[in-house]
Structures are given as C-alpha cells and as structure tokens.
Amino acid sequence: MCVALLPAVATLVLTLASVNPSLADIYRWEDESGGVHFTDDLSTIPAKHRGKAREIQKTPPAAGQPSLSTMGAPPPPPAPSFSPRPSNLDTPDPPAIPEDDDAMQAEKLRAKIDAKEKLIRAVDEKQSLATNPYRNRFVSPSDLELYKKYKEELPADRERLKALESRLAPARER
User: Fold this and answer.
1) DSSP one-letter string for 68-119
2) Which of 28, 53, 98, 166 is the most exposed place for a label (fewest CB within 10 A)?
3) Highest mean pLDDT: which of 10-14, 74-78, 146-150?
4) Cα–Cα distance for residue pair 152/146, rounded to 1 Å
5) pLDDT of 89-118, one tens digit each?
6) Residue 27's beta-bridge partner residues?
7) Rounded CA gap, 28 and 15, in Å?
8) By the 8 A CB rule, do 56 and 27 touch?
9) For the whole model, what pTM was predicted?
10) DSSP the chain
C-alpha cells in the first residue's frame, strides 16, 4: 500500500517545490478624467501619466498575513475640534441639511415601491404552481420575511405617493 502512494506523494512534493510566489509590483495611476487605474506592468501606463504613477505594493505579504498598501498616502486631515460651548455664548445653528423637495421624494418613493413590487412578484412566481410547475419553489426565510413586510408596507407607501403627487399637481399646472 505504501508503494502505491509513493508516486502520488513524490508528485505532490515536486509540485509544491516548484511553486514560486508572485513578485509583481502594482502601480496606481489616474487619467485625465480622474479615473483610477491599477497595473502590474509599468509599460502599459501612458507616457504622460507614468511620472504620476505610484507604486502601491512592492512585495507580496507573508503567507497568512493581510495585504497592506505601501502607497504612502498622506494621513487624513485632523477632525475639527468643537468646543463644548460657543465662544459668543449663543447657541450654534445646526448645519443646514438640504431637504428633498416633493418631486425628489416622490421619485424616491416610486423607486422603493417598484423594488418592493418586484420582490413580491418574484416570490409569487417562484411559489406558483402554475408558473413554476416542475422547478424548485423554495423561497429563503429572509425573502419570505421581506415579502410579508413589503406586502404590509405597500398600501401606506402608495398612499404617501398619492399625497405627494397631489401636492405636485398644482405646481405642474402653473
């Protein structure tokens, strides 16, 4: 039995001994439109961008170690420090957060409704014996939970959309 395993073990040892780690350098460069590109061949970078290309990895990490970038990016700017009390003893105004107008809210709500209806249709078709007679009709528990949740939420979402659209109708008529 040991004699029968000897060729297999010898082949395995020779195969593992002949494997060389990849020592490719990785370069990062940006084009005119700001697109970021990565390559392991410096000659593939256009000449006008070669001077700006940065080497981000020189050697591969040791076995079992995570790959770390050696790009040398500057450290992030320090976070602004806030004093506990404003210097002028007034309460500071909260930062202005732009609120979505009704048209934007309606568009977002339409997209949510469409996504919910799509999942509901997909689950219905998968479970249907008429549309899926010989295939797997199993639906994952997480999809079933979403299905039930979306079925309950859709009527309220449609009502909110109608209310938004009724507010938008007078603005469109102007």
Assistant:
1) -----PPPPPPPPP--SS-TTSSPPPPPP-PPPPHHHHHHHHHHHHHHHHHH
2) 98
3) 146-150
4) 10
5) 555 565 554 555 778 888 888 999 999 999
6) 39, 55
7) 33
8) yes
9) 0.41
10) -HHHHHHHHHHHHHHHHT-------EEEEE-TT--EEEES-GGGS-HHHHTT-EEEESSPPPTTSPP-----PPPPPPPPP--SS-TTSSPPPPPP-PPPPHHHHHHHHHHHHHHHHHHHHHHHHHH-TTTSSSS-----HHHHHHHHHHHHHHHHHHHHHHHHHHHHHHHHH-
**164-173, long-range: CB < 8 A, 24+ apart:** 164/102, 164/105, 164/106, 164/109, 165/106, 167/102, 168/102, 168/103, 168/106, 171/102
CA-closest candidate to residue 40, choices 18, 58, 52? 58
Q: How far apart are CA 73 and CA 78, in angstroms?
A: 15
The pair of three-digit structure tokens given for residue 109, joined into one six-digit string: 């709500």
Token duo for residue 58: 């020189």
CA atoms within 13 A on the CB side of 50: 8
List the structure tokens of 43.
């000659």
**Beta carbons within 8 Å of 127's beta carbon, 6+ residues apart:** 137, 139
